[in-house]
Amino acid sequence: LVDKSRALELFRKLSLYKDESLAVQQVVTELTGQIGAVEDLDWLIAGILNNVQAEQAWTAVKNISQRQSSAFLLDWIYALETAPGVTVEEIREVLEIAEMKAEAENEQTVLSRVRQQMIGLYCRQKSWDHASAYLAKFNYVEDKFDFSEAARVDIMNVYLYTGQPEKALGLFRSKLAESDLSEDSLWCMAIK
Questions:
Q1: CA-CA distances (angstroms) from residue 73 to 24, 38, 171?
Q2: Cα(48)–Cα(144) distance, rounded to whole angstroms?
């Protein structure tokens, strides 16, 4: 009977994830997916870029992500976004895991930040319909959510690009009720 924890510890010590043998890499990656930890995420992400076993490495990343807190995942997403070779779809998958975990942990602040990240991700990709569906999924109502200025502008853009001008106008009016806008504000730049 093999002690998986000790085996993974030995694999890490010997850096077997860098082994030339694809069979060895596969065993290490599979075991890491089963019991790996935060410390394994960096080499797994590097493996996605440099390895023919990218799909297996990504599965291991998702499995490890499932065992982390929503707050950790939200903080880690910034490193993931800058990692070469990581796709927008993979970032979205980790954000979805973080969202589910934040809901289960009843971490409302983290949940709000995750949702803002997801909206921003859709907007950067100009995936307006996906962003609109996402807003509908959690029933976005401005008065109910304390989102950042940038997220609120992103939401206004979603409404503008998905044929919901009345909702966009409502957001804009709400912002004007809070304060005046300068010409170089995010709000004004968004509607130019």
A1: 28, 10, 30
A2: 39
Give the angle 122-117-174 at the CA atoms, nearest 5°. 85
The average pLDDT across 14-31 equals 91
What pLDDT is recorded for position 50?
67
CA dihedral 124→127→128→132, nearest 10 degrees, is -110
Find, among 81, 114, 80, the residue nearest to 100 by Cα.
114
Among residues 86, 111, 82, 106, the alpha carbon closest in space to that of 96 is found at 111
Which pLDDT score is estimated for 188? 87
Residue 51 has pLDDT above 70, yes or no: no
Residue matched to tokens 């504000």: 185
Please calculate the CA angle 126-68-31 and round it to the nearest 5 degrees.
105
pLDDT more than 90, % of the chain:
69
